[in-house]
UniProtKB/TrEMBL annotation:
UniProt cross-references to SUPFAM superfamilies, sorted A to Z: P-loop containing nucleoside triphosphate hydrolases
Descriptive protein name: ATP-binding protein
Coiled-coil ranges per UniProt: none
Pfam family, one: DUF87
Organism of origin: Belnapia mucosa
Length: 490
């Protein structure tokens, strides 16, 4: 099926169409000075493709957050999340196929680079089974992939440039289609710009930018002067998703409004203040400082709501006898152990394991009182910790299970694995063991999961004098023995 996005009109009056499937394979570069209509073009493209493909927008000025009201994008306020939290959020965005806007407004330049790099890294490092098509739009790309070092720290610049390079150079196989927009081609790293095969070039005035735009469009240098004469909202289009020859395009209207529009002229007061100096420079009252405007409430986090969602309670039934309930529970746990005996079970999704579990329960004739997916996830988290029966019967283990419930479901097995080691005085689990409990083969994701749990205040990690890791469970203070993080999982 071919999906075409209507960008507006060509100079001949025909619709200017962009082939969405071709764009997913070839990427897009948009260039134009401030006021050329670059953000308007991106908004038109996002609105037209929103029903067809998942989207992620890196928004340094908060211009695109208004898309959320019309198209249901999740707005993530980057200032309210750590880098580790943004990496996990990006992985969950790909897992749940939620369109998202990363709002970097209010952060300084270095913080914007670090958080954008973390989020793009999470999108790029997602598991292979979640490599579905996604448009990744980066506005003001020269900030995140600068040609040369600027005022930000070198570490932040390298991290951001590496994430942008991965997006444009290696993202296609992972389903990521980069769309980058810049005011200055000369300030954008060449290895990032060179990976785009589609171009929309708007008004620009500097000779070096006009020359690079002409080169990218295959035009002669003497034709570069035309970029000075382009009006607002007019672009030259070229690329397999747009046109085989440079084509003038006028971008059409959009349905949502930007928060970053240019200010309009406003009439001055009809008469000046009688004593401006006295009014403006009057000192404030001694005990009545000017109140600060309260910040707006953060937007709802859809991913957090998904993680915390629980199904409605079933109608109350007469409770079974305690002995029968305990026997039924033991039989369910025995079936779950059969499911987890498969060496590949650690990498399968909970929904797949649940289906296998239900099938085995029906074969064992365990009746209709079987756990739903949420209940199965809780059983799975406990089972992955491999806690001994004598420990499972203690009040301390019940406290550990209750503490795990405050974490997202995919992190509960990791917390319970650490709690079991701490209660038993065992060495701290290695990164490989934590990765297996988390359901991934990546030790990098395991370390990020551990960092996220620590940020939530559930654990404390510290090294001993030999560099081995010790984890303390917050609250009761249980502590693991030192363990080697690099040790292979059993």
């Amino acid at each position: 099926m071919t999906v075409s996005i209507d960008l507006g009109q060509t100079s001949a009056g025909t619709p200017a169409l962009l082939d969405l499937e071709e764009l997913l394979a070839t990427r897009l570069l948009v260039q134009g000075n401030s006021g050329s209509g670059k953000s308007h073009l991106l908004r038109r493209l996002l609105e037209g493709s929103a029903p067809w493909v998942q989207q992620a927008v890196i928004d340094p000025e908060g211009d695109f957050v208004t898309l959320a009201d019309r198209y249901g994008h999740l707005v993530i306020d980057a200032s309210a999340h750590s880098e580790a939290g943004l990496v996990l959020a990006a992985e969950r965005v790909r897992r749940h196929r939620v369109s998202v806007i990363l709002n970097l407004e209010g952060l300084d330049a270095e913080a914007q680079l670090r958080r954008a790099a973390a989020f793009l890294g999470g999108l790029f490092d997602a598991e292979r089974e979640f490599w579905t098509p996604m448009l990744v739009v980066v506005d003001e790309a020269q900030l995140f992939a600068p040609m040369a070092a600027g005022e930000v720290g070198e570490e932040a610049r390298r991290a951001s440039l590496g994430a942008m390079t991965n997006l444009m150079c290696r993202g296609r196989k992972r389903g990521l289609a980069g769309i980058i927009a810049t005011q200055r081609l000369a300030k954008l790293a060449k290895n990032v710009a060179a990976e785009a095969s589609n171009f929309l070039m708007g008004r620009t005035f500097l000779d070096i930018d006009m020359a690079r735009a002409a080169d990218l469009l295959g035009m002669e240098r003497r034709q570069a002067e035309m970029f000075r004469d382009l009006r607002q909202g007019h672009f030259m289009a070229l690329g397999p998703a747009l046109s085989r020859r440079p084509l003038p395009v006028k971008i059409g209207a959009v349905e949502t409004e930007s928060r970053g529009g240019a200010p309009k002229l406003t009439p001055l007061p009809s008469r000046p203040l009688e004593d401006a100096r006295a009014v403006i420079l009057e000192p404030p009252p001694p005990e009545a400082p000017r109140p600060r405007r309260a910040p707006p409430p953060p937007p709802p986090d859809i991913l957090a709501q998904l993680a915390a969602a629980r199904p409605a309670a079933a109608p109350a039934l007469p409770p079974p006898a305690p002995e029968a309930e305990a026997a039924h529970r033991r039989r369910l746990e025995a079936v779950l152990r059969q499911v987890l005996a498969d060496p590949e079970s650690a990498w399968r999704q909970p929904g797949q394991l649940h289906q296998d579990f239900l099938l085995r329960c029906r074969i064992e004739q365990l009746g209709s009182r079987l756990p739903d997916l949420a209940g199965f996830r809780r059983m799975l988290a406990v089972a992955k910790a491999e806690v001994p029966e004598e420990m499972a019967a203690t009040p301390d283990w019940a406290e550990a299970v209750a503490s795990a419930a405050a974490l997202p479901e995919d992190l509960q097995p990791v917390f319970l694995l650490l709690a079991r080691a701490a209660l038993g005085g065992e060495p701290c689990p290695s990164d490989a063991a934590i990765a297996r409990a988390y359901g991934t083969r990546s030790v990098g994701r395991a370390r990020r999961a551990l960092a996220f749990i620590e940020e939530q205040g559930a654990i404390q990690c510290r090294p001993d004098l030999t560099g081995q890791r010790i984890v303390t469970i917050a609250g009761p203070g249980w502590e693991t023995a030192p363990g080697n993080p690099a040790e292979d999982a059993a």
